[in-house]
User: Which sequence fits this backbone?
């Protein structure tokens, strides 16, 4: 089995959700007039708390040896991160895990990925504090990448210099050096900045803002259902979520306002219950019907075939079992 594929998939999920969370928290703090340091410290605290309570402590307490093997992976293998993770997940960690538990390795790998992306995100956000302070001051979220620049520091990047020039025009330095790779990135960001002000972009933002938390939680439930099914039944070819749809979905579901999941016990958290149970969270058939109809209505403007098919199947089953509406 390709355990690295599972790891990579959940790392990507965790990255997109964490990125959206940090960006949204910065925007909300700015609206409230919080100093950046206050906002930055709070975001770091929430990330650290969620990392430790939901993943790190659980992995250490339940799977100490395989977890420690993963942390020490570079003492076992040389090479790029992807190759090292791939090898150790399929060898030393697999053997260590099965020595203490015969089942659940896929879920363990997924949790390792989520723990790793949260840890990496926290390290990145803290080390790039000065970079994000400029974004916070200027609202330049088109420069919000949430990952380290390769081959150069953020202070030598075009994006940092551009923001410094805007914030401190009296110190503007026009002698910006560059190379082909950097010029390519700059052109890409210019195009994204132009798109931001286009009518199509504004219309899309309006559609995204229409989703409420309950609709977002239902979509997360569907995504988790699809991913879990794919993990558990590897011999069956199920419809999958395309990369394009996945990116769009992460933008939709990443904007929920209820942040208690970051500091409450999961079993006592409403958002967690709604995601875990889906429509079964709601006791009223009319509430279920209303939620699924509103969610499908807002998703229809996007090309989410797999998600819409799942929702349509749930809706059909609901109507069939409860018979509360005419067919």
Assistant:
């Amino acid at each position: 089995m390709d355990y690295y594929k599972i790891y990579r998939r959940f790392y990507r999920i965790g990255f997109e959700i964490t990125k959206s969370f940090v960006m949204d928290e910065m925007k909300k703090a700015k609206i409230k007039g919080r100093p950046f340091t206050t906002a930055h410290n709070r975001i770091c605290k929430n990330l650290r708390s969620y990392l430790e309570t939901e993943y790190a402590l659980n992995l250490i307490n339940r799977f100490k040896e395989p977890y420690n093997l993963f942390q020490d992976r570079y003492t076992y293998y040389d090479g790029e991160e992807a190759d090292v993770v791939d090898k150790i997940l399929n060898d030393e960690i697999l053997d260590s895990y099965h020595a203490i538990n015969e089942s659940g390795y896929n879920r363990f790998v997924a949790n390792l990925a989520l723990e790793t992306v949260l840890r990496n995100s926290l390290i990145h956000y803290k080390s790039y504090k000065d970079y994000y302070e400029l974004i916070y001051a200027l609202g330049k979220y088109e420069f919000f990448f949430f990952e380290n620049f390769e081959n150069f520091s953020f202070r030598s990047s075009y994006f940092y210099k551009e923001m410094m020039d805007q914030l401190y025009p009296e110190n503007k330095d026009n002698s910006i050096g560059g190379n082909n790779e950097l010029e390519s990135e700059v052109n890409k960001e210019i195009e994204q900045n132009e798109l931001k002000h286009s009518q199509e972009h504004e219309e899309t933002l309006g559609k995204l803002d229409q989703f409420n938390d309950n609709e977002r939680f239902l979509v997360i439930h569907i995504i988790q259902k699809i991913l879990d099914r794919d993990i558990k039944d590897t011999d069956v070819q199920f419809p999958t979520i395309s990369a394009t749809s996945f990116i769009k979905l992460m933008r939709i579901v990443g904007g929920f306002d209820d942040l208690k999941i970051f500091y409450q016990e999961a079993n006592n958290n409403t958002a967690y219950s709604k995601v875990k149970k889906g429509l079964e969270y709601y006791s009223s058939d009319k509430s279920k019907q209303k939620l699924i109809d509103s969610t499908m209505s807002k998703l229809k403007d996007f090309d989410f075939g797999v998600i819409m098919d799942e929702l349509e199947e749930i809706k059909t089953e609901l109507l069939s079992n409860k018979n509360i509406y005419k067919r």
Summary: The two ends are 43 Å apart (CA to CA).
